[in-house]
Amino acid sequence: MQYLTPSSSGINLKSLIRSKIQSHLVVPSRLVIKCAYRFESSNAAANTGTINTNGAPSTYNAGHVGASRADWQSSCAILASKVVSQQQDTEMSGGAGNITAVNGHTMIDLDLVAINDNQPKPLTITDLSPAPMHGAQLRVAYQGVPGAYSEAAAGKAYPKCEAIPCDQFEVAFQAVELWIADRAVLPVENSLGGSIHRNYDLLLRHRLHIVGEVQLPVHHCLLALPGVRKEYLTRVISHPQALAQCELTLTKLGLNVAREAVDDTAGAAEYIAANNLRDTAAIASARAADLYGLQILAEGIQDDSSNVTRFVMLAREPIIPRTDRPFKTSIVFAHHEGTSVLFKVLSAFAFRNISLTKIESRPHRNRPIRVVDDANVGTAKHFEYMFYVDFEASMADVRAQNALAEVQEFTSFLRVLGSYPMDMTPWCPSRED
Ligand SMILES: O=C(O)C(=O)C[C@]1(C(=O)O)C=C[C@@H](O)C=C1
């Protein structure tokens, strides 16, 4: 599906990256290579007409939609060339030459007054801090366009944040890795649809840390162009999770029409508006109806009124775990061979009275099959798994530390994805979009 770009005055990624450059933040070249790679893949995707990069930041409340893919590409090209030229300057001047000059009093004339604004400034502790600089707005990357539930989750977790729409989850991760955003928001499970497996895989592939969670009641609406009636509809489009969450209700509404999956709920609404599609409805939020000028044909069409999606917040740095409020810790592990290992791992928590809130398994990509030869019976083949476990304790809690020390004995791989405050907001399944 193609995202479209409604005109607005939102700040765009180009200006964000420019401001980053202007503040002379030195970006490691490794990140730029990643960035260049992303252009190629997004170009390739755009050529197939399936994905469109819409990387314009928007203030959460205002719901701005801004720059085009070209903007994003040129921004990163500027960033890449800036870094390359910085590297060339450094190479030509002999890298650490400046230090030698100062320390060794070489022929460089030290003019301590005139500071050239084009020189890179050293990183400070604030640049490395997981929190934004005092007074700065937290920038939160999410997948989708304004009106998506992920945007609402960003607003719930960080009420005054600047929400930055990204066309893919991968881009949201990279936005944080490249310091374009401070956080990424990622849906990981839904009460009706279950776990969002692809996002678990992304957590493992990237090195970001979980620093928070929010549970967002998801209240779906059926949206169409003004004047369109249910009888005119030949298809309903939305995010696959949203389609699954409304399956029964659509049938009850007599909508036995084609269902088509698109990248996000609000993107579906935007697509209908921009293409003036009078035979198509979208499943999306009431806010998406407002933003894209659609009417609400039916409200609360999720099959279960207490439909809720859990999102996690990701940052470059972990937060310091505490014990003065309820914390959750998420881990992922693979175990050594042996059938009783999973039981042993889980009992490490049970013996310490640590509750598990979630366990999820995903096939081990690098080692999908374990072969067990038995001369008499033949060859048994088991799937190998990565296990994702959430438990109710902070990493600052000695019980959690001991449990993990024990888990480590049975596992071939163990990573703490994050230790973060639990979402303790009162449960209220009414509409929140
Ligand atoms: O498409 C959106 O609006 C999203 O934010 C994505 C998403 C998901 O990935 O599950 C989030 C919440 C809803 O469960 C439906 C879709």
TrEMBL record:
Q: What class of enzyme is it?
A: lyase
The EC number(s) given in the record are: 4.2.1.91
Q: Where in the cell is it found?
A: Plastid, Chloroplast stroma
- InterPro entries the record matches: ACT-like_dom_sf, ACT_dom, Preph_deHydtase, Preph_deHydtase_CS
Q: Which GO terms describe its molecular function?
A: arogenate dehydratase activity; prephenate dehydratase activity
> Coiled-coil intervals in this record?
none
The highest taxon in the source lineage is: Eukaryota
The answer to whether the entry has keyword Membrane is no
Keywords on record: Amino-acid biosynthesis, Aromatic amino acid biosynthesis, Chloroplast, Lyase, Phenylalanine biosynthesis, Plastid, Transit peptide
Q: What is this protein called?
A: Arogenate dehydratase
Natural source organism:
Nicotiana tabacum (Common tobacco)
